[in-house]
Amino acid sequence: MSTDAMAARTHAAPPTDSRPSDDTAAELFTSDEVTRFRGQWQTIQTNFVDDPQEAVQGADHLVAEVMQTLAATFADHKRDLEGQWRSGAEVETEDLRVALRRYRSFLNQLLDA
After folding, report:
1. What is the pLDDT of residue 62?
2. How many CA atoms lie within 13 A of 27 on its CB side?
3. What is the reported pLDDT for 36?
4. Which domain holds residue 43?
5. Is 95 contained in some domain?
6. What counts of helices (H) and strands (E) characterise the chain?
7. Residue 91's Cα: distance from chain center in Å?
8. Quick one: pLDDT at residue 1?
9. Could you tell me the CA-to-CA distances from 82 to 61, 65, 87 in Å, in that order?
10. Whose CA is closest to 43, among 68, 61, 20, 31?
11. Is the CB of residue 80 less than 8 Å from the CB of residue 1?
12. Which helix (H) or strand (E) segment is 90 a member of?
């Protein structure tokens, strides 16, 4: 994607939200993680002028860290669900509905990003 296309996409109006109104946002990152990732990104951008290659390497590492953090979030969520299922206790339909809503929220946030 060209830089112009990326800029247009960034400034385009957000897509019409056709999701159900009860789709509560599942937290992908803690507020501390978001603050830390944004701070690291700002530093990377600032350092580009002095050392572009290092800045791109830093961006690569940051994106990898963000992806690992996101994967850990999903793994924790999955582990919690599987723990309920393994306990032998019957999982309530309402608990499964909430879990499915969280997955829907995760997916929508990723696709809307």
Report:
1. 97
2. 7
3. 97
4. 28-112
5. yes
6. 4, 0
7. 27
8. 45
9. 31, 25, 9
10. 61
11. no
12. none
Q: Report angle CA 35, 31, 21 to the nearest 5 degrees.
A: 130
pLDDT tens per residue, the chain (113 residues)?
444 444 444 344 444 444 444 455 568 889 999 999 999 999 999 999 999 999 999 999 999 999 999 999 888 888 888 887 787 777 788 888 888 888 898 888 888 87
Largest separation between any pair of C-alpha atoms in the chain = 59
On whether residue 81 sits in a domain, the answer given is yes
Which residue type occupies 99?
A: A
Nearest Cα to Cα of residue 34 among 65, 10, 3, 1? 65
The structural domain count of the chain equals: 1
Q: Is there a domain that residue 77 lies in? A: yes
Integer-rounded Cα radius of gyration of the chain: 19
Tokens 């530093």, residue? 43
Return the SS3 of 89: coil
- Give, in order, the Cα–Cα distances in Å from 97 to each of 22, 47, 89: 12, 46, 17
In a domain, 92, yes or no: yes
